[in-house]
């Protein structure tokens, strides 16, 4: 038999097994479907028990159904041949036959661990590891690793050159794919690490940190579903583009109950998509912002009354600025502003009563005084104007006017100007979201009615007032208690500012964490400050560190250049080892100013022709508008072409990358060299730089 015939015979044999598994999966799908239907029928019986039972049944069956549907494609992807002759099939989810015998082992089960951990040096009982490549339900190829030749039966066939290299050479599309069939040993160790404390996954670009972290989320859900599904798993990445890039990985592993949020979307109701300019971004991210926000949340609001005069019987009662400041201090001494909101009317009333001295008034007593006061619209209007509930977003909007006065010299003129300019649009940038979140917590929410003090004059809690609250949609008045998760997974963590760490820390106070990052790729300029904030966010949780060492993304030719840039960007950077050579070295074009756009256009065309998958044109932010205008036709014609800035390429990858004006990317921010390093490490196959200057090349050895 020729090797092609042998491979075809092996594929046919595997197809027969795979068909049996799909047959069984279809039966399970029907059962789950009928359980959903039956569950709904039970609900119609009408008693409470029926409804509870229905909810539980429908919930379980629906979850099973969505897992079955999601894991459908490429369901069976692996086979282990063990010493002694057992063949064990590994899949995206577990499947049993009608007699409850295992047909397919879930990749996360202990029985599947060997699939990832066995090596030729240490085969641990595995003779042959086989990866099945499928298209839908059809097996289209097999790739084998013979791990233990000595114990292999004579007739054992070994096909292909290894699954990993085959999978690395595929063309990239717009979304990340699961690598469940080819997870490598060091990656598997990080995926299966215990869930306690914080698991920190480091390593150079393209080493699989993101994909490993996502498989880890699926693994954790499998091992402790009750805890992680009810407590929630939050996955945070740098941008919404990145979140759409990774969004399919978990569903393809049968997991749909995970919350994916970009850094601009972590706070409910606030969706930010754009980054600030570097100076404003660095200022807003700094922990120097914290005292400013504290002062903002506790100081008098602009426009609020500064005194109150009340005539009662023979007395003139006066609350001047000093007295009001005293009441304010008392109210804020142990409660955030909005939580103190129900106590404000009583505090004002008390301060007024203390001034009462007239005989007629004293005769009537405090009760009589309060009766009259709290039904008097002047008092009601005053308290409403002096201590209204404050919404975090509304308060954030006052920052441009107030930051100068509240900063107390902590920011330079340049920083203040950059922030004020950024706020002029009124639209929050990604860097504003942690500030709004900080304000939410500093202000607190208005407690629900039943938690309010009994000594609050009821008139102020009138129906009319509550209606007004709803009308104003005061978001800070909604609960902040449900921000917490059972597991928080942070990708590209090297870029988190101190203020962003604080925002995530509040969501992971009782959580275990997975933190993924590579310092060399950091665009945050003050590493020490961010590190302190990270440590504070983890609040002493035990850290387990893993380092991934092999770059699976870039060709070795591209990574060699990137590694030289890394030496300039961050001496001592954690460099990975690239495993794939393509024979295509990066190219550098040096052109005159007037020829730049033509050259970029021509290069984009060449790339679109030469690669099957995605192409990115990456430039400094200031260059994007003219590039987008010039490439508008091509962008309309090709979904796979993108024009973006360096920061927005974080975490992504493309088959071909055209880097426009590297010197401008480097000059754009303090972290310019590191951003340039990130950009270079996005290309899987082809890389070209086009520039009117080439100063950077002379710095790179
Ligand atoms: N075991 C593997 N088998 C097949 N492909 C893999 C494997 N590990 C990683 N890859 C692929 O390598 C590429 C890089 O992975 P990933 O984006 O997770 O790396 P990263 O370390 O997060 O990179 P960066 O830090 O540069 O953003 C992806 O296309 C991923 O699918």
Automatic annotation (TrEMBL):
ATP binds at residues 203-210. It comes from the Bacteria. The keyword Hydrolase applies. GO terms for molecular function: 3'-5' DNA helicase activity; ATP binding; DNA binding; hydrolase activity. Gene3D superfamilies: P-loop containing nucleotide triphosphate hydrolases. GO terms for biological process: recombinational repair. Keywords: ATP-binding, Helicase, Hydrolase, Nucleotide-binding. It holds the Pfam family AAA_19. Residues 182-555 form the UvrD-like helicase ATP-binding domain. SUPFAM superfamilies: P-loop containing nucleoside triphosphate hydrolases. One of its GO terms (cellular component) is cytosol. This is Helicase.
């Amino acid at each position: 038999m020729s090797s092609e015939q042998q491979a075809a015979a092996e594929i046919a044999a595997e197809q027969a097994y795979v068909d049996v598994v799909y047959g069984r999966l279809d039966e399970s799908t029907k059962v789950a479907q009928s359980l959903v239907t039956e569950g709904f029928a039970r609900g119609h019986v009408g008693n409470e028990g029926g409804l509870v039972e229905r909810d539980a049944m429908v919930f379980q069956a629906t979850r099973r159904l969505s897992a079955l549907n999601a894991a459908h494609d490429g369901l069976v992807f692996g086979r282990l041949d063990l010493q002694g002759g057992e063949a064990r099939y590994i899949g995206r989810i577990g499947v049993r036959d009608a007699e409850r015998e295992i047909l397919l082992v879930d990749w996360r089960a202990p029985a599947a661990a060997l699939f990832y951990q066995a090596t030729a040096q240490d085969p641990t009982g595995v003779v042959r590891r086989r990866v099945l490549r499928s298209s839908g339900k059809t097996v289209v190829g097999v790739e084998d690793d013979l791990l233990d030749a000595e114990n292999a039966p004579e007739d054992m066939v070994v096909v292909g050159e290894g699954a990993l290299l085959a999978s690395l050479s595929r063309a990239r599309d717009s979304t990340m794919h699961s690598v469940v069939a080819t997870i490598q040993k060091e990656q598997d160790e990080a995926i299966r690490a215990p869930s306690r404390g914080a698991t920190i996954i480091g390593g150079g670009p393209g080493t699989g940190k993101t994909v490993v972290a996502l498989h880890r989320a699926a693994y954790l859900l499998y091992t402790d579903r009750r805890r992680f599904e009810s407590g929630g798993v939050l996955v945070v990445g740098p941008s919404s583009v990145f979140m759409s890039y990774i969004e399919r990985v978990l569903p393809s592993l049968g997991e749909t109950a995970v919350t994916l949020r970009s850094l601009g979307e972590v706070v409910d109701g606030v969706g930010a998509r754009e980054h600030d300019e570097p100076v404003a971004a660095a200022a807003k991210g700094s922990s120097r912002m914290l005292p400013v926000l504290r002062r903002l949340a506790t100081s008098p609001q602009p426009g609020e009354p500064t005194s109150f005069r009340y005539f009662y019987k023979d007395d003139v009662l006066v609350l001047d600025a000093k007295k009001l400041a005293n009441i304010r201090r008392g109210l804020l001494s142990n409660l955030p502003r909005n939580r103190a909101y129900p106590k404000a009317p009583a505090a004002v009333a008390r301060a007024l009563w203390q001034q009462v001295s007239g005989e007629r008034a004293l005769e009537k007593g405090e009760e009589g005084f309060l009766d009259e006061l709290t039904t008097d619209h002047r008092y009601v209007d005053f308290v409403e104007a002096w201590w209204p509930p404050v919404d975090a977003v509304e308060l954030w909007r006052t920052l441009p006017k107030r930051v100068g006065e509240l900063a107390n010299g902590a920011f330079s003129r340049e920083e203040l100007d950059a922030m004020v300019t950024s706020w002029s649009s009124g639209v929050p940038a990604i860097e504003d979201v942690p500030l709004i979140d900080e304000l939410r917590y500093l202000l607190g929410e208005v407690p629900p009615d039943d938690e309010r003090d009994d000594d609050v004059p009821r008139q102020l809690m009138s129906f009319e007032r509550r209606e007004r609250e709803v009308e104003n949609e005061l978001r800070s008045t909604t609960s902040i208690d449900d921000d917490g998760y059972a597991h928080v997974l942070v990708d590209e963590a090297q870029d988190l500012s101190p203020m962003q760490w604080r925002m995530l820390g509040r969501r992971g106070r009782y959580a275990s964490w997975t933190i993924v990052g590579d310092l060399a790729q950091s665009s945050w300029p003050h590493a020490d400050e961010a590190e302190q904030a990270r440590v504070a966010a983890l609040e002493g949780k035990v850290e387990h560190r893993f380092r991934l060492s092999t770059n699976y993304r870039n060709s070795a030719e591209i990574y060699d250049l990137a590694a030289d840039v890394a030496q300039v960007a961050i001496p001592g950077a954690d460099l990975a080892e690239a495993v794939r050579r393509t024979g295509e070295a990066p190219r550098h074009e040096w052109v005159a100013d007037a020829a730049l756009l033509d050259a970029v256009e021509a290069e984009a065309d060449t790339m679109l022709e030469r690669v099957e998958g995605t192409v990115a044109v990456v430039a400094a932010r200031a260059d994007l508008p003219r590039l987008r205008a010039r490439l508008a036709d091509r962008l309309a014609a090709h979904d796979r072409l993108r024009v973006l800035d360096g920061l927005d390429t974080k975490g992504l990858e493309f088959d071909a990358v055209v880097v426009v004006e590297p010197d401008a990317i480097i000059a754009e921010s303090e972290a310019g060299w590191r951003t340039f390093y990130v950009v270079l490490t996005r290309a899987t196959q082809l890389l070209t730089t086009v520039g009117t200057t080439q100063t950077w090349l002379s710095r790179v050895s």
